[in-house]
Amino acid sequence: MSRKKLIAGNWKMNKTSADGAALARELVLAVGSYSDADIVVCPPFTALESVATAIDGSLIKLGAQNMHFEPSGAFTGEVSAPMLRALFATHVILGHSERRDLFGETDELVNKKVLAAFKNQLRPILCVGESLAEREAGSTLKKVQSQLERDLEGVSRDQAAGLIVAYEPIWAIGTGKVATAEQAQEVHAFIRGLLTKLQGEAAAQRIRILYGGSMKPANAAELLSQKDIDGGLIGGAALEARSFVELVKAAGGKP
Ligand code: PEP
Question: Which of 143, 160, 148 shows the shortest CA–CA distance to 204?
């Protein structure tokens, strides 16, 4: 099955509301009507509204970087799925390794967020991946399997068809070290096989599995040519229009 490639930009804790809108306007000019690849930008919460306005009417979609699983309540500092929907977000990154490692997010918590995202018609971009120590110990596939099994507990097959998975080896995030295309494809193929077991063939064939970890215009083409790599989750290279646009065009196969 051919899956349209997707390039998602994770801006992390970068860009004020005004700076985010300026970047989004540049993206709209360059690829706002580009339909050979899907595009999602994920600004910080404080820039969601200005970026939503900037991309309005274009093909670029809006995502958040995190959310709480409850719809409302006494959760100081948190933001809920209905709040994101009200700002026209359609996607949400969940379980990023920075959330897991720096903010103590467990698979149990990520699972609650995944279920809440689906309940609120937000498409989760669920991040999984191993640390350097886990790769060196030969436990990459075991780690990814245990994350996916726990994070997807209770997700129906219909919901799963709308899931996006991002395989992000932690040792490659923001380090300039990129997984080789073969290393990445091996894990992506494993993930597709596991998703087939967990969610059935039809859903597993529809789920896009993105690679994340120092993806840049210089290494994108080789990664994106792999059978089970359906796009990229981009950190550093998403902060400038020029590199992000090049990645989008590499994914679309048409400059
Ligand atoms: C990320 O944090 O999701 C990421 C892939 O970052 P970078 O592209 O900077 O490695």
Answer: 160
